[in-house]
Design goal:
This protein is mostly helical. The protein has one domain. Helices cover 37% and strands 5% of the residues. The chain contains four helices and two strands, in the order αααββα. The chain has a two-stranded antiparallel sheet. The protein starts with 14 loop residues before the first helix and ends in a 10-residue tail after the last helix. The relative contact order is 0.18.
Amino acid sequence: MGMSDRDRPDSLLTRRAFVGLMGKGATAVALGGFIRLLGREDHFLRPPGALPEGEFLALCIRCDRCRDACPYGFISPVPLIESVISAGTPRLLGYCPRCRHCIYVCPSGALRNDR
């Protein structure tokens, strides 16, 4: 025979309360990890003329024009798996001969010729 509600000690967690507690704990851990990830500063090798990282990220519109303009194919977008903040922004994959084609097509000013 099962225990009635009157016979059940108050110190036992119900299954529903336990699952809710575990869900809240998992949410807190995930949120903490996400906040930590956002606070991390990424260090990618950027195309010529790139502004300092904070300014670059604020201005870059992730249009891929710099990647399309690179005659050597050395510019690639940062994948989401490597950085949530920098995803889609350009990075250099190889030696850059600094032809500056990428600077001339940048519409946002994230890449500038005066650098």
